[in-house]
Amino acid sequence: MHQGTKPTMACAPKLELDMYFPPLFSALRQSFKAGYTFSALRGDVSAGITIGIIAIPLAMALAIAVGAAPQHGLYTSLVAGSLIALTGGSRFNVSGPTAAFVVILLPITQNFGLGGLLLCTMMAGIILISMGVLRAGALLQYIPYPVVLGFTAGIGVVIATLQIPDALGLGDLGTTNNYIERIQTIAGGLPNIRLGDTLVGALTLSTLIIWPRLFPKVPGHLIALVFGSLLGLVLVYAGIDVAVLGDRFSYQVDGVSHPGIPPFLPDFVLPWQLPGPDGQPLELSFELFRQLLAPAFAIAMLGAIESLLCAVIADGMAGTRHNPNGELVGQGIGNLIAPLFGGITATAAIARSAANVRAGAFSPIAAIIHAGVVLLAILVLAPIFTHLPMAALAAMLLMVAWNMSEPKHVWHTLRIAPRNDVLVLLTCLILTVLFDMVLAVGVGLLLAAGLFIKSMSDWTDTASVDRKQFRELHDLPDSVALYAIRGPLFFAAAEKALSTLRRFTPGLQLVIIDMRAVSMLDMTALAALVSVVEDYHKQEIGIIFMGASPRVRRKMRRAGIHVQKNMLANAPTPTHARERALGWLRARGIVPPPDCVTDPLTGPVAKTQHPAAVLSDEQQVTEQEHKS
Fold this sequence. Notes:
The protein has 628 residues and is α/β, with parallel strands linked by helices. The chain has 23 helices and eleven strands. The strands form four sheets. The protein has a five-stranded mixed beta sheet with strand order 5-6-7-8-9, with helices on both faces. Strands 1-4 form a two-stranded antiparallel ribbon.
């Protein structure tokens, strides 16, 4: 070391705890990074007002559909919609009450009351945050498309059925245990159809169908609701009864009951302080959490699927990319906080998000402005909402159910999809309608996985191969058999594929197994392969595995399948396999030694490599395997 220079110390290894936290506010930061201008703000304001107008009637209708008062739907769009937009990972998702949740939330409300519904929503929020932290956003892409299409179409059928009583003015038909009973109850109430409600529902539904074709740039939801409400007022003036929102829902201020929804902001309240199924505050217990855990998981899974699917669609329309894990965390935060202010379960809505992109949105600020529009509606328009016809709100959900079920798309899929996918789709659809979505998705995933495993196992086989197909192996004696394993060796295919290798023919001395098409081995296949090797060794039959990939060879070594002199070897190519086979057969005296020639330097040598040289090649291949 030179004098005057300071000694340098080697850097000590630094141990760091690498924790992963999904980026909060990722969509908002992405928008500002892309350059937020006055033009972008103008687009966000225009889009926010547009989707706010769309969201107001839908939020109330969806809250009613899940058994809650209509203001809880508005509170959801206000609180959850703004929080998810602010903290989530998609620039264009607009979150709030969605039709997909109706089939899950309605039974929760009926069995556990409003308090149980909000508590279950908070539990789902915690699950969604955990999914985001654990980077589960990418895992949802493995859910088969027929499963999603099947349960989505089934949800649409159920929602449409639930809206028929209000659309026809049948009144409250009570609760039913299953879909068949609901159909029977509706059929029994058909003689009590009310003319006024039916006319209002028909006009609202017709407007929703025709208006977008005539004026595609103007949202038809508010127009349809206005037309239906005006017709309802005319019918009431003419002496024809029409059920309105104020007839069914009311709120209390200082002990005095008022019809409709409250014209003020929601109070902070803990969910377990709200009424349960008996009208009394919930009693927290381990049993209550146990009963709500399965619905909470169902809510979280459906919310994750819907929000990420919505984000993918919005990205396709706008040419952007979302952060799936950040979006899951944002959805979890929204569903964790919103119930403290009376909000029900929220997730991104495809129709509102698509309308957001088409209206010119640039950032999540559009969804925050949409929440501001909902806030103004609560404070200013609440007295007017009292006179909204129930049939008009039901007609809006009938249209939502039709769009959600996508009959044309389902029919197209049934015509062109493979038979297995059709079976999965129909199974999910029928189970969703007759039982529930949780069962449908579980059975659909298992069925899709089982059918996929069956298809993969059909592609895997083992067959005897004519040696003439290989130029290097065509002259080997009849005591050498050649087999080829084609496809992945896993639990569903291993036994069937390897059973061919257990057929011993008289005089068999050596088997060459072509494994170039084997992409993977699982433990079941390894166990079966070890058994085959042991059977061959008992018969003193040698085995050469030809063309196995380094990954497959490593798995075989770990399972105890090692290279043994004149009994088991690996050969990377047919040429190497031929050399090893001839060396073994000469060592056993089956093939005569080759003719000799005289080398001017070393003297007499064989034309074919000596077995010792072959063994050296085997050792070299083994060394290469260890290096790989």
